Amino acid sequence: MTATTTTTTLRSYIAPPQTKEKLDWAELEALDISLLDQPGGKQALANQVLSFINKNGFFYVTGHGLTNHQVDRQYSIAQAFFDLPLEEKLQYSCDTAVGDFRGYKPRSTGELAARDNDERYNIPKFTLEHERPHPELILQHYEEIKDFSLHIHNKILLPLLRLFAYVLEIDEEYLVQIHRYEAKGLEYLRYMQYYPRTVEEDAKLGNLWAKGHTDYNTLTFLFHQPVAGLQVQQPDNTWKYVKSEPGPIIVNIADALEYLSGGFLKSTVHRVTRPPPDQADKPRLGLIYFARPEAEVKMKPVQSPLLERLGLQVPAAQLKALEEVTAEDWARARIAKDHRFRTGIVKKQETEILAGVHQKYYD
């Protein structure tokens, strides 16, 4: 796909100030992946992973090679996209009914507004499989978005996958080889915006903007978002806020990596709550990248000496049900299930996702 020659001048993105409220922040580890190229760095990072992996599924990544300016440019594109007329954005709607998240998802309105208060634009991998129409705004910045996405995949995701493979004591290229960028699979960059609600509206919903859940991909990368609200569930089932600062990327482990690692790398339970009073009137603009295994990868654990010593940490019945399920099957089932509740087809959130495997709800 070729970008157009005329480029619209973007409005500069100015991040909202951090909250001044005293919040209970989670203590997260930071993995400096630039150390992977230094003598002893890989082992040091592996030891770090082993020390924190069962405490918090969220962690920070530093030394990733992206500048604050590059991140802010993506936010400028995102805010320009959400400023477009709804009629224009709807021309690029995704088909979530069949489990396809490529394109635009509007927020719900009317009686269903309580279930879905965000809008999203998902830009998939820049491969022939995913060539599709985009708004002129996106086409004008197509190469810049592509470079940003490829950097995340090649320079951040792949080094982390090699590190996790090293921790699992398997071939360091094993996880990389099932996340080939050119292979069929739905991996995407997301622009996302929550909208503020009144105190009364939020109170009716338990002050939750997104209920506690796990993601269904491999790793999720969340870029600087200073409007507080993201929380992570602790081992004792309490919740703590996740602080976002310029520079570090927040990363969480998701379902696919949990299953592939036999439960050793646990999917992060997280939610989004109403922001503190000094931020509650602000939209919550987000920039997120979802990495996912190739479409045909089976959701079964790797053969790992570490897992042989520790034992599989996913229930045997669940592993049996998933052993013939592909990463694409899993993702589409989760997206379609969420679509049915969001659009009012079902009145209550369904628990079964696929093959007898059920999703837990945490609120």
TrEMBL record:
Residues 185-293 form the Fe2OG dioxygenase domain. GO terms for molecular function: metal ion binding; oxidoreductase activity. It comes from the Eukaryota. GO terms for biological process: small molecule biosynthetic process. Gene3D superfamilies: B-lactam Antibiotic, Isopenicillin N Synthase, Chain. Keywords: Iron, Metal-binding, Oxidoreductase. Belongs to the iron/ascorbate-dependent oxidoreductase family. Signal peptide: none annotated. PROSITE patterns: FE2OG_OXY. InterPro entries: DIOX_N, IPNS-like_FE2OG_OXY, IPNS-like_sf, Iron_ascorbate_oxido_reductase, Oxoglu/Fe-dep_dioxygenase_dom. This is 1-aminocyclopropane-1-carboxylate oxidase. It holds the Pfam family 2OG-FeII_Oxy.
